[in-house]
Amino acid sequence: MKTPRTEPNELRELAQLCGIQTFYLASDETMSEADPEVLMGLIRALGVPIERPKDVTSAIRERRLLAARRMMEPVLVVRSGRRTSFTVTLPERFEANFAWFTTEWEDGSTRREQLLTDSTPVATLELEGQRFHRYLVDYSAHHPDVPLGYHSLTLDVTDAGHAAASATSLVISAPPCPEPARGWGVSIPLYALRSQDDWGAGSYRDLAQLGAWASSKGAALAGGLPLY
Known about the structure:
Elements: H1 8-17, E1 23-25, E2 31-33, H2 36-45, H3 53-69, E3 75-79, E4 85-91, E5 99-104, E6 110-113, E7 123-127, E8 130-138, H4 139-142, E9 149-159, E10 162-174, E11 185-189, H5 204-216, E12 221-225
Parallel strand pairs: 3-10, 11-12
Antiparallel strand pairs: 1-2, 4-8, 5-6, 5-9, 7-8, 9-10
Helix pairs in contact: 1-2, 1-3
């Protein structure tokens, strides 16, 4: 199937709406972007039917509307000691004061609260004739010491006192990952490593010698196959 000719920005937006990472940062901080053919293949693999350029535009509209109708992301990650916030999207007819959050901790205890009381929307969206208000919840301000583990956060929204909609997110609370020290290294398959007295297949002794030599040159690591 051929890749339709479309605007690169539209294709990347669609990929991001589908949850696809469109670029990565190399070790030297340079940015590498995925090729359009790669993005198109991934989008199609996710079941989005893209055959003509106009399909990309219509798929973006559908994904935007789907994202707006999703009140919360299905998974929220909380890092202890770091600020954690998430976005809540509500249809215009719902008021923030009628939004209740229930946290069910891993130990079975629960806490019910109004995290959006007197909150002002940070953005207003209008899609396909529908208006949505987007709110930013500073979760760490209400829960500075979230216990490590897997928890559940449920949002219930009422309209004129009647239950109208709900959404549940998995809350993963974990310690922050330490920032690794930057460095360079060498890599070679062990069976390709040669020394004066090797048997033609490499050895752990040769690997140790390689590590010592690389370290003397300022390397931070030595890698190889089949061992990393």
